[in-house]
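## retry 2 of 3
previous attempt timed out at serialization; input unchanged, resubmitting
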Amino acid sequence: MKPNIFFTADHHFGHANIIKFSERPFESLEHMNEELIKRWNEKIDKEDIVYHLGDISLGKPDFTKEVLDRLNGKIHLIKGNHEGAALAYPKRFESIRDYHELRIDEPENSNGRQKIILLHYAMRTWNGSHRGVWQLYGHSHGTLPDDEMSLSIDVGVDCHNFYPVSYEEVKELMKKKKWIPPFGPRN
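## retry succeeded, writing output
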């Protein structure tokens, strides 16, 4: 069976103030950490592929290593602006990048694949944005209004009930966008 692909960002494990800053519904730091781990592992199996778009942990390196060891999946890290602790444990990641252009087999597309730009930060335009390429980001914790005319989505946990989102879920969200290709025939 082919592994599933998931996207997520902005867990901020070990960061007590994020509960207040982002109005997260957790009673304590320990409650948040445990619930985020539980929700991750509810959706992600050991062989699944996870693209984490930054800000995994603000805890100390030993704490962060313990959390990372409890998370299922093969994790690819797209670095955010709070990555010091996670970078102290590089062997936990399949890859570590600042930016990534991912291609996924997609039989529904005329060329047979979907290209996705992965970056911690939201962009207004990106490589292929005028040709149906998606952009996934984090960093903003749901504070950026969604642009229904743009094929971009905040995959941060604050936007998805503190769960990672699957490729299939992202695909369904993108289908609801009102994006129109700027070139070619219009219906």
